[in-house]
From TrEMBL:
Organism expressing this protein natively: Bradyrhizobium septentrionale
Keyword presence, Transcription regulation: yes
UniProt xrefs under Pfam families: HTH_18 (PF12833)
InterPro entries reported in the protein's UniProt record: AraC_XylS_family_regulators (IPR050204), Homeodomain-like_sf (IPR009057), HTH_AraC (IPR018060), HTH_AraC-typ_CS (IPR018062)
Domain HTH araC/xylS-type positions: 227-327
Keyword DNA-binding in record: yes
PROSITE patterns: HTH_ARAC_FAMILY_1, HTH_ARAC_FAMILY_2
Superkingdom of this protein's organism: Bacteria
UniProt KW keywords: DNA-binding, Transcription, Transcription regulation
Name of the protein in question: Helix-turn-helix domain-containing protein
Length: 331
């Protein structure tokens, strides 16, 4: 561990998830490195009066970079965030003025590679910035008809408002995923890390997908599609699968998949996959050794809200995860 200027701690870890920096700070200058890709330090002016306090973390999940942090006083920020990756910014608290538009929590700020962002954070704030290479970003959106043609991709900087009905849930989910990756990321398997990466991309591109309402073509009959998807999940074993992976593999949109599963098995594909993951956790706990912990097993299978996980587990199996584990250990 190396201590850098302003008390930044540089962390080194292996695996697909790397925690590159994590620190608490009391000087606004640390925000010059608020985004990990910035080719030169951002120009920062502290506008709000009083002592500054904040947190900063730089993560990488495979090829996707994530910078997240919080600070307690308003600032003016300007600079290029990345020269080769798209920057997808989401405010997790408070609001900001970015060039000529106002952003509120849950909104998506889209910044093209090599473009300067000029912004004012009115008060303290909490943010998450996702950095994605163009090929990976547009491959992720490939199953969303029209998503690659959204005007945001043809402008240097723009803002897309989130669906207000889901804003709070999206912000909460993003915050929890980032906290889990910061704490447990280096221990995750490649499969679990990919699942969480897809979750992040799903959250930060939600406003893009919301702008292109569509009814996907029914490429496969519902029963055949569900059987093939089910076989794909069986072949994947206990690896957590994100819905975007299914859409990409079978070249169908989310709505097509949703209609097919509701028609054939009576529940949505997300609910079906969640129950399969709960079943995988049950199997691991039932056969786990004395070193097995519920928290580690749950996170490895894509569950980060442990209270909700335990409730869903109990509703499905009639007992808590701890009861399953005790039964296994008594054997």
């Amino acid at each position: 561990m190396t201590t850098l200027e302003f008390g930044v701690e540089l962390l080194s870890s292996g695996g697909i998830v790397r925690v590159q920096q994590q620190l608490e700070f009391a000087d606004f200058e640390v925000l010059r490195d608020a985004v990990q890709d910035a080719p030169t330090p951002m120009d920062i002016v502290q506008l709000g009066q009083g002592e500054m306090a904040g947190t900063l973390a730089h993560l990488s999940v495979g090829s996707v970079g994530i910078s997240t942090g919080s600070f307690t006083r308003g600032v003016r920020q300007r600079g290029v965030l990345s020269t080769n990756r798209w920057t997808l910014g989401m405010l997790l608290g408070s609001s900001a003025l970015l060039q000529h538009f106002e952003a509120t929590p849950g909104d998506l700020i889209v910044i093209a590679p090599d473009q300067e962002l000029y912004s004012r954070f009115i008060n303290g704030n909490h943010y998450a910035t996702t950095l994605v290479a163009p090929d990976e970003l547009f491959a992720f959106l490939a199953t969303q008809p029209g998503a690659q043609d959204v005007a945001a991709w043809h402008q240097p900087t723009t803002m897309l408002a989130s669906d207000r009905a889901t804003t709070a849930a999206n912000v909460k989910q993003m915050s929890m995923i980032l906290a889990a990756l910061t704490e447990h990321g280096p221990k995750l398997s490649v499969d679990a890390a990919d699942f969480f990466k897809r979750n992040i991309l799903e959250l930060v591109t939600a406003p893009v997908r919301d702008t292109v309402r569509y009814r996907g073509a029914r490429v496969l009959a519902a029963a055949k599609l569900v059987r093939e998807v089910d076989r794909y999940m069986i072949d994947a074993g206990s690896r957590p699968i994100h819905i975007s992976e299914l859409c990409a593999h079978f070249s169908v949109g989310r709505r097509t998949l949703h209609r097919a599963f509701n028609e054939v098995v009576g529940i949505s594909p997300i609910a079906f996959m969640r129950r399969k993951r709960l079943g995988d956790v049950h199997s691991v706990l039932l056969t786990g050794g004395p070193d097995a912990t519920i928290k580690d097993v749950a996170i490895e299978h894509g569950f980060i809200e442990l209270g909700r996980f335990a409730g869903a587990y109990r509703r499905l199996f009639g007992e808590l995860p701890s009861q399953t584990l005790r039964r296994a250990q008594h054997r």
